[in-house]
Every structure is written in structure tokens, then in C-alpha cells.
């Protein structure tokens, strides 16, 4: 019972951290502001997450769990292009999460950022997953002649790049429609 209560509290803290990071960015977010949001002292928060970096990793892991339907990244073995389009639609309904992820991704490219290793490993894994998705859909060659390995970084870049454009101009960028258009390009001319 105590363990379940502790996990519930950790989840509450992670959700508050998502909000604070979305509002202020990682560097502008403090443990004190997250603690205040959940009614804890900073010392109380440190009982659950001993460092700001530990909380950051928990936020990133939680975001990935949401994207894979509550499972692990291994659940992504079942991705198909149509399910990726559904994920883009889902992301369009949760701007705060997308904003947090995008802010952290942008900040992580700086030297010494605590999320750099997470994103480096995540992108290597995502490129592998996208290669598998493309291979399952097209075999060894896409209609364009590209291999799944060549197209996987492009697919990943389009997904994340659309998120940035949508966050900056949601009234001008229909992220799900733009992604469906990209899938049309991948699939090649209609026969």
C-alpha cells in the first residue's frame, strides 16, 4: 500500500514537472517550483527525486510511456505508418506535453545538458524502430528507391520538425494533415 502511494505521488510530481518545464524550460524550472505545485517542500520532493536530473529523466520516460500506450519502448515493435499518423493526431491534442518534449530536446543539444544522453540514445532507438516500420511497409526499398535505413532519419525528422512548426504557429500548421501528406510522399505515386 505504501509503495502504491509512493508511486502515485511520484506520478503527481512528474506531471507537475511537465507543466513547469513547459512553462519555463528545463533551465528555468526549479525543484522548488515543482514542489510548490504539488504541496511539498523542496526537501520533501528530494525524497522522491534526489536531483533535478533524476526528475528530468522521469519526465522524459513518462512521455515515452504515454506515446507507447503505457508500455515500454518495446511496445513500439507494433508501430505501423497508420499508427504513427494516429500518434501525430494524439500529440496535436496535448500541446503541453509536446511543448515540454520540444523544449527539452532543444536544450539537450548544449554541452553538459542532463538530457543529452537520453535523447542521443532515444534517437538511435527511434531510428531503428522507424527502419523496422518502413521495412514492414515497403520491404527493402521504398517507392523512391531509398532503403528503410536511409528514410528512417527523414521520417523521424518530419515528425519532430512538424511539432516545432505546429507549436510556433498552430493556426497555420495542421500537424496531422501535414504528416499524412508526408506519408503520401513516402508511398509514392498512386497506381
TrEMBL record:
The keyword S-adenosyl-L-methionine does not apply. Gene3D superfamilies: Tetracycline Repressor, domain 2. It holds the Pfam family TetR_C_6. GO terms for molecular function: DNA-binding transcription factor activity; transcription cis-regulatory region binding. It comes from the Bacteria. Coiled coil: none annotated. InterPro entries: BetI_C, Homeodomain-like_sf, HTH-type_TetR-like_transc_reg, HTH_TetR, Tet_transcr_reg_TetR-rel_C_sf. Keywords: DNA-binding, Repressor, Transcription, Transcription regulation. This is HTH-type transcriptional regulator TtgR. The lineage of its organism: Bacteria, Bacillati, Actinomycetota, Actinomycetes, Kitasatosporales.
Amino acid at each position: 500500500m505504501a509503495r502504491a502511494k509512493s508511486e502515485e505521488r511520484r506520478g503527481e510530481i512528474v506531471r507537475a514537472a511537465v507543466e513547469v518545464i513547459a512553462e519555463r524550460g528545463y533551465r528555468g524550472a526549479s525543484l522548488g517550483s515543482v514542489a510548490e505545485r504539488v504541496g511539498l517542500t523542496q526537501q520533501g520532493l528530494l525524497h522522491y527525486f534526489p536531483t533535478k536530473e533524476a526528475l528530468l529523466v522521469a519526465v522524459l520516460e513518462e512521455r515515452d510511456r504515454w506515446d507507447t500506450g503505457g508500455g515500454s519502448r518495446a511496445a513500439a515493435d507494433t508501430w505501423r505508418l497508420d499508427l504513427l499518423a494516429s500518434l501525430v493526431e494524439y500529440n496535436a491534442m496535448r500541446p503541453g506535453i509536446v511543448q515540454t518534449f520540444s523544449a527539452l530536446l532543444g536544450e539537450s543539444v548544449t554541452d553538459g545538458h542532463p538530457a543529452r544522453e537520453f535523447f542521443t540514445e532515444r534517437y538511435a532507438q527511434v531510428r531503428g524502430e522507424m527502419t523496422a516500420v518502413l521495412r514492414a511497409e515497403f520491404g527493402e526499398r521504398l517507392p523512391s528507391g531509398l532503403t528503410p535505413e536511409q528514410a528512417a532519419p527523414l521520417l523521424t525528422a518530419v515528425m519532430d520538425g512538424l511539432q516545432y512548426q505546429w507549436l510556433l504557429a498552430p493556426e497555420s500548421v495542421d500537424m496531422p494533415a501535414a504528416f499524412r501528406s508526408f506519408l503520401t510522399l513516402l508511398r509514392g505515386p498512386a497506381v
